[in-house]
Amino acid sequence: MRALHISSDEYVWPNQNRDNPTYQSLLNLLSQCDDYKLSVLLATAEALLKDASDKGNDRI
Fold first, then answer.
1. What is the Cα–Cα distance from 17 to 5, expressed in whole angstroms?
2. What are phi and psi of 54, to 5 degrees?
3. Residues 6+ positions from 42 with CB-CB distance below 8 Å
4. What gap in Å lies between CA 60 and CA 4, rounded to an integer?
5. What is the distance between the alpha carbons of residues 2 and 9, in angstroms, rounded to a whole number?
6. S-S: 37 plus which of 23, 33, 50, 60, CB 3.0-4.6 Å?
7. What is the pTM for the complete model shown?
8. Is the separation of the CB atoms in 30 and 41 below 8 Å?
9. What whole-number distance in Å separates Cα of residue 17 and Cα of residue 45?
10. Who wins on pLDDT, 24 or 3?
11. How many CA within 13 A on the CB side of residue 6?
């Protein structure tokens, strides 16, 4: 799977976000990031989710 750049997510959580082009694009871009960029993205995602839960907003 790694050699083919295929995510195992589809096998662990089938049908989750399969048809969401934004999700698929993010997955494809993650493989191009170095450790620093991944840590920035992780911190950003965590902050977005925390902000949404603090506001009681499940839009995200």
1. 17
2. -65, -35
3. none
4. 30
5. 12
6. 33
7. 0.60
8. yes
9. 17
10. 24
11. 7
Per-residue pLDDT at 59: 57
5 near 30, Cβ under 8 Å? no
Determine contact, residues 52/58, Cβ cutoff 8 Å. yes
- Residue-wise pLDDT tens digits, 7-51: 676 667 666 777 889 988 998 999 999 999 999 999 999 999 998
Distance between CA atoms of residues 39 and 45, nearest Å? 10
